[in-house]
Automatic annotation (TrEMBL):
Belongs to the class-III pyridoxal-phosphate-dependent aminotransferase family. The gene is gabT. Keywords: Aminotransferase, Pyridoxal phosphate, Transferase. Gene3D superfamilies: Aspartate Aminotransferase, domain 1, Type I PLP-dependent aspartate aminotransferase-like (Major domain). This is 4-aminobutyrate--2-oxoglutarate transaminase. Its cofactor is pyridoxal 5'-phosphate. InterPro entries: 4NH2But_aminotransferase_bac (IPR004632), Aminotrans_3 (IPR005814), Aminotrans_3_PPA_site (IPR049704), Class-III_PLP-dep_AT (IPR050103), PyrdxlP-dep_Trfase (IPR015424), PyrdxlP-dep_Trfase_major (IPR015421), PyrdxlP-dep_Trfase_small (IPR015422). It comes from Pseudidiomarina aestuarii. One of its GO terms (molecular function) is identical protein binding. GO terms for biological process: gamma-aminobutyric acid metabolic process. The keyword Transferase applies.
Length: 428
């Protein structure tokens, strides 16, 4: 007898903590590339890829084969006890790929939040300073320190405080909402005068493109200004590339658009094709600031995940997925731009860098009137149309598209046509 989505949802609700909710009561049985099938046999085009994790698509044969070979050899010894070649090779490749000319070293952990927290630990050890500055709308994870850095209260921070001290927030540039880059930079100066001296700040952390915040991009000029400010005051610059990395934005890492070299970078999500893995990569002398034994974790640098990550890097290169991200993004931008022409009162802006695409929805064409209702209708109706969609945004009014970079033209065209139908239905 077939198990239904409704039955599984009831079973989940009975045993999962309420806080770990799910967007869709759609239970996956199998997935391939850009398509997902649920336990009832219904097919969906996945436009979220597990929140930017499966850049190389679901169950890419090369990734599956690499993980399987490693699993058959051994699954775990702990890289801090008995290391293994796949971890060394991955560190070699990531340190070569990270933007900038400085010699670099790597650290492996399991999640993006761990990577963020280890950046802060390393920055404090390297500088002897305490303060960290983040930005409003930024998302850096769900552990306590990462929540403190995150610049959005609901649903991430509400009821979970207190958070660590010595964390400060500056407004992130959002031109469409009246926050200029100069305003943001001026606010950093205010923080230095009113809250913490620049000489006490260990690091500034910033996403080149905000993920949960709504896909607002930091311009090359803004990142260069942050680099200059950090250099002036001996502050370390942390670039959080968790959602923007591994070809997503039409570069291996989004920072390449600006030419800025980070002191420390976080990497996760698309790194290993769906297996849990994250990394910190940074300038060698900074990475070596922490004492031996001060960094690590039992599962960090899983050999199976490292093997998968090496295959992901091969696939990105061999299948030219960086270039493919640009082509996919251009198709989304064209189709969504045409939709905006028909609905200027509802669509404030289409934002697109590579295959990281956002649709910001408002009332009456007014940026100060976020249309969260329409976003929720689109999310709720998406399964009926065979789509998996994600929302985000500082104001909760953004649909974000994170398609697999391996999506072929036929599925891409179907996805865009289907979304057009869905939007017109939801907008009525």
């Amino acid at each position: 007898m077939m198990t239904t989505n409704a039955e599984l949802q009831q079973r989940k609700l009975a045993v999962f903590a309420r806080g770990q909710g799910n967007v869709y009561p759609v239970y996956v049985e199998r997935a391939h590339n850009a398509e997902v099938w649920d336990v009832e046999g219904k097919r969906y085009i996945d436009l979220g890829t597990g929140i930017a994790v499966c850049n190389t698509g679901h169950a890419h044969p090369a990734v599956v084969a690499a993980a399987t070979r490693q699993l058959e050899a051994f699954s775990h010894t702990c890289v801090m006890v008995n290391p293994y070649e796949v971890a060394v090779e991955l560190a070699e490749r990531l340190t070569r790929l990270a933007p900038g000319p400085s010699a670099k070293k790597a650290l492996f952990v399991s999640t993006g939040a761990e990577a963020v927290e280890n950046c802060v630990k390393i920055a404090r050890a390297a500088t002897g300073r305490r303060g960290v500055i983040a930005f409003t709308g930024g998302f850096h994870g769900r552990t306590n320190l990462a929540m403190g850095l995150t610049g959005k209260v609901a649903p991430y921070k509400a009821t979970f405080g207190p958070f660590p001290a010595d964390i400060y927030h500056a407004p992130f540039p959002m031109t469409s909402h009246g926050v200029s880059e100069q305003t943001s930079l001026s606010c950093l100066q205010h923080i230095f005068k009113s809250s913490i001296a620049a000489a006490d700040v260990a690091a500034i952390i910033v996403e080149p493109i905000q993920g949960e915040g709504g896909f607002y991009a930091a311009s090359p000029a803004f990142l260069q200004a942050l680099r200059g400010l950090c250099d002036e005051h001996g502050i370390l610059l942390i670039l959080d590339e968790i959602q923007t990395g591994f070809g997503r934005t039409g570069r291996m890492f989004c920072a390449e658009y600006s030419g800025v070299e980070a002191d420390l970078m976080t990497m996760a999500k698309g790194i290993a094709g769906g297996l849990p893995l994250a990394a910190v990569v940074g300038r060698s002398e900074i990475m070596d600031a922490a004492h031996v034994g001060g960094l690590g974790g039992t599962y960090g640098g899983s050999p199976v995940a490292c093997a998968a990550a090496l295959a992901v890097l091969d696939v990105i290169a061999e299948e030219q997925l960086i270039e493919r991200a640009v082509a996919i993004g251009a198709e989304f931008s064209r189709a969504l731009g045409a939709l905006r022409t028909d609905f200027p009162e509802l669509i404030l802006e289409v934002r697109q860098v590579g295959a990281m695409i956002a649709l910001e929805l408002v009332h009456d064409g007014d940026a100060s009137k976020p249309n969260t209702g329409l976003v929720q209708r689109l999310i709720q109706l998406a399964p009926e149309h065979g789509l998996i969609l994600l929302s985000c945004g500082y104001y909760g009014n953004v649909i974000r598209f994170l398609p697999a970079l391996t999506m072929d033209d036929t599925i891409l065209a179907e996805a865009l046509e289907t979304f057009d139908v869905l939007f017109r239905r939801a907008a009525c």
